Amino acid sequence: MAHLVKKAFGNMLIICLGLQLTFNTCIAQSKLDTLTAELNSAFIRDSLYGLSVALVNANGIVYQKNFGFADIKNGIPYNANTIQNIGSVSKSLIGIAIMKAIELEYFTLETNINDILPFKVINPNHPDDIITIRELTNHTSGIIDNDSIYPNSYKFYPALRSYDKELMGWIGTKGYQEKIKDANMKDFFYNYLCKEGKYYSRKNFSPDKAGKTYAYSNLGSALAAHLIEIKSGTSYDKFTTQYILEPLKMNNSGWFIDAAQLKSHARLYYNRDKDFPLYSLLTYPDGGLRTSCNDLSKYLMAVIKGYNGDVSLLSNASFKQMFSPMFTEADAPEGLNFKNRNKGVFWNLYSNGTIGLDGDDPGVSAYLFFNPATGLGGLFLSNKFMDDKKDIVELLVRATFDL
Questions:
Q1: Full-model pTM
Q2: N or C: which terminal CB in the chain sees fewer CB atoms within 10 Å?
């Protein structure tokens, strides 16, 4: 009799556990269905054209949805394998690469950049300043983007496929005139930062001392990547392919336009009727990665794993250093919204507890982050520049706390 009671109790326990699991699964699915509806509303409200969204944990993709079109005219849907530029989300890879270079003993965060460069960089406003690699990684170096120079380093490829010619004329009025003809970052940075260079100007430098003022700098970021080139003896694209893209099997990702992938490359829209020609960046590390939602999900999964102790990309010490806050409220540089975020090595440490980066460029919006408290992360890519990503970002961040 006792045996039968135990057996019945055991069966009841199994049934209860099964019902609980089913209930939890239903609740999770209900939340994801709600998320899809809310994302669709944001997609419509923000007048987007294409959008791919994912939530991941260390083990895989837990949610993925696509909206709209990669090519409106030809009716090609935007999907998880659609390729596009991701703007400054690319800088997160500079963070990984810098830490790998430190592991390879090329330099430290405190290394003076003039100990590596073949020419001297001197801020004319503060000629005795030392600029460190750390200051490049947190945007306090005093090297700034001269708006009359930086946009001219973009190169457009109108011959690769059709584009809106009127729009091409419009972006020329915004400074994108392809006046910079340097073939590589080595030549460009000499001309931009060396006193004898063709583009040298006081306007290339902040009036403030290094380390004292936060001024977002694409060129300071790309310079950090160039230092890796100098010390490694290989190009940054090859370095990141060896240490990041290939190990993660990000086979549809890269820094330059691949003609074989054009059919998968989203058109980048200004509005529904006008799309930009394809383009690349001379200082490509600061914003030139082309990737897909699926490939970027692999990257985000690896970052989450690394944060939690995996050493496939970097050592535990390197991950810890990369995500350690560089400032306290007392020493936060002027210009940094400390109530909103702190800085790691390129990565933003947001006050809501998440860690990530966002990206923008002509016809491009992207965002990538993870939530250390829950082990979930999120990302999105869109083929339209968004003035404000808040609606979609807040939906994804909330999901990483609620699921």
A1: 0.92
A2: N
134 domain-assigned: yes
Which residues constitute the domain of residue 222?
47-402
> Does a structural domain hold residue 204?
yes
Length of the chain: 403
| Residue 11: inside a domain | no
Local confidence band at 260 (pLDDT 50, 70, 90 cut-offs): confident
Mean pLDDT, to the nearest integer, of 165-186? 95
Is the model more confident about 290 or about 22?
290
**Number of structural domains in the chain:** 1
Tens-digit pLDDT profile for residues 356-379: 999 999 999 999 999 999 999 999
Task: Look at residue 68 and tell me if it is in a domain.
Answer: yes
Q: Please say if the pLDDT value at position 6 is more than 60.
A: no
pLDDT tens digits for range 374-399: 999 999 999 999 999 999 999 999 99
Domain containing 157 — which CATH number? 3.40.710.10
